[in-house]
Amino acid sequence: MKDDSEALARRNAQAAYAFHIIAIVLLAAFALVQILEFLGRLRTVTTIVLAAVFFCYLIYPAVRSLRRRLPMWASLLAVYFAFGCVLFGVIAVVVPLATQNVQQLTHDAPRLIENARMTLADPSNPIVARLPPQATAYLANLPAEVTLLIERYGGATTTHVFAFVLSAASIVVLFVIVPIFAAYLLLDAERVHASILAMVPRARRPLVAKIVKDFDTVLGGFVRGQLIVAAIVGILVTILLLVLHVQYAVLIGLLAGLFEIMPYVGAIAGAIPAVAIALFSNGWQNALYVVIGFVVINQIEGHLISPFIVSESVGLSPLFVLLALLAGGELLGIPGLLLAIPVAGLIRVLIVNLVPTQR
After folding, report:
1. Is 154 part of a structural domain of the chain?
2. Does 174 share its domain with 213?
3. Do 124 and 256 sit in the same domain of this protein?
């Protein structure tokens, strides 16, 4: 009888503990939604803070390494100087090539559209001939519709995008305010860490210190790892298209690398224009080789590069990465895609540290 009562009490305690965990998770989710809505109203400030935090995690390993021999301010100056030199070198090499590709694409656009129209309207095309009549008619009219959309919205959109990118305010934010804010964050990091621990009861400080350290590992690993993955994917796509003699290789590789900041998106985003250009410029055989090359790059990224560089530090399986991306995109759009993986990694850290494994 005593054993039964103890077992019942143990099950009740476990159920109460489970309800507490569920309540905490629901409250945290509600608080997160409210915080995101509040930050959405302060877009400029939020963008600067997030960019500064990401920049801190990007350069922190180098700063920490130099900090063993130099003062903090000297370490920051050295890292900022080296980062500026690397950034200037990359811009000096990539931007002229990408600009040349853009100019060439603008010049070749009418020819590409005409080739696309002729290819899709050709009844002897082995691919088009197997499609239903409705699909064939739609594809035959697609180049004209694309041309109309470009003429209607392309010029205004390009003007607004370049005006935003080249505006004085965006340049100041990108190259001045964000590094300065990041420097202040790094200078005050130890004091902020000590202040957080001081607000926690002494008995809970080791657990909170471990959670903060795990947060730092997840965010730092994601930021640095995702940039490395994006660079690798961009380089692989560029090399693939150069080898297969596909035009605008540098521009497409650059776009693939930029979109790769959102996991698993870069290779797909680069494949669509690359396959289309190869198909309408070099023929279906060349387009087939491009498809095979992008499949290989996607498999290399998904099974070799990302798991070892990003997933290892974030601690999420590819399935949970995909679910996080879907949820982030559904809730917040493009910003949600950017923040989904680190937020999911932070949630995993909380679960691992707050939910005892024996229960």
Report:
1. yes
2. no
3. no
Neighbours of 300 (CB within 10 A): 15
* Per-residue model confidence as pLDDT tens for the chain (359 residues): 555 666 666 766 666 666 666 776 677 667 766 766 666 676 677 777 888 888 888 888 888 888 888 888 888 889 999 988 888 888 888 878 888 887 787 777 777 777 776 766 666 666 655 666 665 565 666 666 656 655 555 444 455 544 545 455 555 666 778 888 888 888 887 787 777 777 777 877 788 788 888 888 888 888 888 888 888 888 999 999 999 988 888 888 888 888 887 766 767 788 888 888 888 788 778 888 999 998 888 888 777 777 677 666 677 766 777 777 777 777 767 777 777 778 888 888 877 777 655 44
Q: How many domains does the chain have?
A: 2
Does residue 219 contact residue 226 with C-beta atoms inside 8 Å? no
Dihedral, CA of residue 83, residue 84, residue 90 and residue 96, to nearest 10: 170
- Tokens for 152, please give them: 């209607």
Dist CA 214 CA 350 (whole Å)? 9
In a domain, 276, yes or no: yes
Handedness of CA 216, 263, 79, 48 (dihedral sign): negative
- In this structure, are 253 and 136 located in the same domain? no
Q: Are 267 and 237 in contact (CB under 8 A)?
A: yes
Strands (E) located in 74-198: none
List, as one string, the DSSP characters of 257-308: HHHTTSTTTHHHHHHHHHHHHHHHHH-HHHHHHHHHHHHHHHHHIIIIIHII
CA–CA separation, 259 and 264 (whole Å): 9
| Tokens (6 digits) for 296 | 């290989």
Q: Phi/psi of residue 65, each to 5°?
A: -65, -45
Report field, pTM of the whole predicted structure over 0.85: no
